[in-house]
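Sequence only, no structure available. Ideas?
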Amino acid sequence: RKAVMQILSFINYWVTITAIYSIFALSLNFQYGHGGLINFGQVFFLCFGAYTVAITAQLGVNFAVSIILAMAVSGFVGFLMSYTARNMGGTYWGIATLAVGEIVRIFFLNENWAGGGANGISFDVKIPYFEMVTLTLAALSFGFTRAVMASPFGRVIKTIREGDNLPLSLGKDVFSFKKKTMAIGGVIGGLAGALFAYQKQFINPEDFMPIETFIVWAMVVVGGKGRDMGTLGGAIIIQIFYVGTRFAKDFLPIDSNMLAALRMIVIGLLIMFVMMYRSKGFFPEKPRLYKVP
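Reply:
I predicted one. Tokens follow.
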């Protein structure tokens, strides 16, 4: 009976953390997969969302309000970050976002007044039926991104993904659309950060290392960029490897440090396989066909 309870507890954890990272991956897919914005600092949305929740929870703010605030703060951060894209593009802007992500983490690491410094923040606020709430919010995030991409706004950012010249020739304000894309992606990423904080009940700067951005990029690449259903599939696949390898210590004589390295090696090999044999991911984006009258 104890073994069964442990298995059920693990499944419950895996489903919850997969739902949270699915939301996080949807935020990156919205910016990169749909909008073509290469963001290597995606983790700062997770960071701002989590710290906003932790700080407001300590102040006694209702959990629903704290989640909304986390989404607003992360969306505003995304909006501000988009201004750096005015004179940079492609890989150069991606490197800039990577630097910003590390600057944010180091800020929270060294400034005790902002988030407890290296000691982090702990709080004891439980969301009723947290697992169901998380799954529901993941489904709503998926539906929201699908709805946005089916709108005229979504069609424009799909065009921007292929280059600025065509939308500019159609009279579209490309920079304005990029700002909105970053803001919307930030809102979704902030939601993931908020749920991440409530799931852990404790956060510190070590939770927001660059490796977290690597993991979410792996989800988008493995699943298939530009397709929300593929992103969800990629999140499930990566979390199976990422979380499931924890059981390897029960069958293999390896310590925890080796296990952590093994986990990253497996995910890296999976990405290499996808790039070599499934360059568009396991669930590639389907081209939209239009009937000619």
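The CA atoms of residues 43 and 213 lie 5 Å apart.
Hope that gets you unstuck.
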